[in-house]
Task: structure prediction
Amino acid sequence: MSPGQFSIGSNIPEQINAAYKTHLHQWIENYSRRIQKDNTSNADRQLQMNKINPKYVIRNYLAQLAIDQAELGDFSMIEELLTLFQKPYDEQPSKEKFAAKRPDWARQRAGCSMLSCSS
Result:
């Protein structure tokens, strides 16, 4: 799909209403125009974005797993995360699992899903 082409399928959450779709389409059109105006290749744009957006960020469930292990005397995950986050922008093929989405089990575990301001 090229810039400016976007399709919202019929399998979408209920909270995505008509106004949301309109704003989303408008944002995508604006972004597409900006991309064309910048006249930068997709590869160069991706390189630029990767330089300022870390691939690896601490996720609540990762921190909790490291805490759980440390409480049992195993600090290996803390050490692994410390090493990982020393180069959060770099590709680290052996660490891809840390860039993945939150696993389903973490949705139900306290502290692993979302935190509020009072957390």
Observations:
- The mean pLDDT is 85.
